[in-house]
Design brief:
alpha+beta; four-stranded mixed β-sheet
Length: about 130
């Protein structure tokens, strides 16, 4: 069950892997930037894909605290320290994304940053979700 309307202007090429816009109604859930670390705040590894997958898992864990699921995500912002790695690993990123989030593609923004607060972190992902009104 979802109360989302995906927004796609007429004549625009369909985006690949994300939505241009979403209109939603319900309980808003805001997830702070999550990095690829474990429950005890240790990075899973220096591997970019491992960090992406764990950051996504952390987003899902925070959502679950509010009773939300990945299908409720309406917006994600990714902060990445290595544009070349992101571009060259898009297939692997997509596979990790689908393992954790599934085939739900909310609005997304990607921002390349010089560094993240935690040493060794290569990606940080924040999310907004909307749980439909009950």
């Amino acid at each position: 069950m979802s109360t989302f309307d995906f927004l796609q202007p007429k004549g625009w090429k369909l985006p690949k892997g994300y939505a241009n816009g979403i209109a939603a109604e319900g309980l808003l859930v805001f997830v702070a930037g999550q990095i690829g670390w474990t429950d005890d705040a240790k990075l899973v590894s220096g591997d970019f894909i491992a960090q992406v997958e764990r950051a996504l898992m952390n987003v899902v864990a925070v959502l679950a605290e509010a009773g939300a699921e990945p299908r409720h995500i309406v917006r994600m912002t990714w902060f990445v320290t290595d544009k070349a790695a992101y571009v060259s690993l898009q297939r692997e990123i997509g596979e990790a994304y689908q393992r954790v989030i599934g085939r739900h593609f909310p609005t997304m923004s990607l921002i390349i940053v010089k560094d993240l607060l935690e040493d060794g972190a290569k990606v940080e992902i924040e999310a907004t979700a909307v749980i439909p009104a009950r």
